[in-house]
Every structure is written in structure tokens, then in C-alpha cells.
Amino acid sequence: MGFSPPLAGNSDALPTSMPFNLLRLLLGATAVALLCVTVPHLAQAESLAIVVNDKNPLVSLRPIDLASMYRGEELHWPHGGRIKLVNRETASLERAQFYRQVLNAKPDQRFYVLNTPIAVQSLIRRSDEAVLRFVAAIEGAIGYVRLSQVNPSVKVVLIIDDPSTQ
Known about the structure:
Blueprint: H1 20-38, H2 40-43, E1 48-53, H3 63-70, E2 84-88, H4 93-103, E3 122-125, H5 128-137, E4 141-146, E5 154-160
Parallel strand pairs: 2-3, 2-4
Antiparallel strand pairs: 1-4, 1-5
């Protein structure tokens, strides 16, 4: 049976019958479990909704066309007007899922306008709510959010399925 050193300055030291490393492991596992319960979207991926402004005449979008937009191969909507891309921050789970499933790329991958050295420009938003607000306000905007966060202020033109259900 192993012994653990008492915690410095703690008169209510933990029982020495439990090895210190096991205690650390249990505390770590508990912290991860609590994080997944309190922040459910960290626990698993969710389907993504591709959203556009509700005034956009587009009814649906093919994944290949979406990828062309975010890769800088397509800069204008079929009905005219500049496409305004909205992205999530590089470290977000939503961006990782979007880049992996739609662009077949890592979330920090940079794309360049076709046949130019000009980087594709996108606006970065830190939350689904911020993406939805921007897309609702700007006619040429397109972005992605978790499907469960969609509201009537935008139009869904494509759903990227949760990878765990494929």
C-alpha cells in the first residue's frame, strides 16, 4: 500500500491509504466530466447549418459550391453581389469540423483567391450568436453555426451532418 504526502498547510490531509497519483487521476477525470456536462457542445460534435441572409434568393447550396466560396474560387453570388464569408475563430470546434468536412483542411489553413497571391478574407466571429447577427444584418453574408442555434433571422441553405452519425 502506497503513502501520499499530506498536502502542505492542510490540517485536513487526505487519507494516506489512497495513492497520490490515483487521487490526481480521479480529480482530473471528474473535472473533464464536469466540463462536458456544463459545456455540452465540447462533449461531441453537432451538425452544422450553413446560413445566409434571409433576403438571399438562394434556396440551397451544394457542398462543392460552399467549398469553392471558402477557398476563394468563387467570389460572387450567382444572382450578383460579393460573397462575405464569416468564419469562427481558429480554435473553435465548429471551425475544426467545418474545415475538416467541407474544405478537407486544418482549421488554420489559409486559402488564396484563385490565381492570385491574395488571401481569402473572412470575418471572424467568436460565437454562433455573433455569426447569426452578422449574417442577418448583411445581405451577402454566409456563415456556419451549430444546427441547434439557428433562428428565424437567417436562411439555412445546407446542413453538414454531425460526423459521429455518418
